[in-house]
Amino acid sequence: MELLTEELRAQLPPLYSQEGDADPVVHAKFFTPDSNWTWWVTEGQTEGEGDDFRFFGFVQGFEAEWGYFVLSELESARGPLGLAIERDLYFAPGRFTDVVPAPDV
User: Fold this and answer.
1) pTM for the full predicted model
2) Mean pLDDT (10-residue bins), the chain, 105 residues
3) Would you list the DSSP string of 46-100?
């Protein structure tokens, strides 16, 4: 599965463009089908001179936190059963508070 399509690349705002927004728009969702890791993408852009793409967003895994992650790492990572990370094809962009479920406490 292609994680970053040309259409998604064109839709993503550049890094830091939503920095002051307390409720940024989430544009994509990546997940591991064989574990509970999810990456909620709010921004992204091509990284330096290479072809890698750097995302910023909210990650739910061992912890729930905001941070950066790169396309090459997502493409090479595998879950505990060896399954690749996928893009949620049915995800509809929306405000963070509308699309990201509150973490279990």
Assistant:
1) 0.92
2) 94 95 97 95 86 94 94 95 97 96 66
3) E-TTSS-EEEEEEEESSSEEEEEEEHHHHHH-B-TTSPBPEE-TT---EEHHHHS
